[in-house]
Specification:
- It is built from eight helices and no strands.
- The protein is an all-alpha fold and 145 residues long.
- It has one domain.
- Helix 1 runs antiparallel to helix 8, helix 2 runs parallel beside helix 8 and helix 4 packs parallel to helix 8.
Length: 145
């Protein structure tokens, strides 16, 4: 496991969401401090505010890609195109590895249902599956940015 993967996994195990773990592991090297990076990425946890939509590891990776390559001028089409291309490449990779990118589809639980969350915790869903999503996203970013 690489250093950046270890950082992302450690953040996740510390209790931060997948999106926070992925984004905060990369943010300092791109000029965003830990506190700000955690705040920026927090709303994307649990498939966007526990709604089960896009996995936080994916949205965290999107934030990293955007921060690294996103456009800052409306007429900067090359930056826009590169950002979108990398995001699509990441999603294709993630889907090939895990078949899906939706949080609820990936882990099979409703994060707004306390009973399902407890069942997932006792079944090791977060410890095993989500840790793998975070680690995989961090490694892809390291290898492709």
């Amino acid at each position: 496991m690489t250093e950046i993967q270890k950082q992302a996994v450690a953040l996740f195990k510390e209790g931060f969401s997948c999106s926070q773990a992925v984004f905060a592991a990369y943010a300092p090297e791109m000029g965003i401090d830990r506190e700000k990076s955690l705040k920026l990425s927090q709303a994307f946890g649990g498939g966007m505010a526990h709604m089960g939509m896009t996995c936080g590891a994916v949205t965290g990776a999107f934030l990293v890609i955007g921060l690294k390559h996103g456009r800052t001028r409306a007429d900067d089409q090359p930056a826009r195109d590169k950002t979108y291309a990398l995001m699509k490449e990441f999603v294709q990779f993630f889907r090939e590895k895990f078949c899906k990118i939706g949080c609820r589809e990936l882990i099979g639980i409703d994060l707004d249902n306390p009973e399902e969350v407890e069942k997932a915790k006792s079944g090791g869903v977060f410890e095993n599956q989500c840790t793998e999503f975070v680690s995989t996203a961090a490694l892809w970013l390291e290898n492709n940015l």
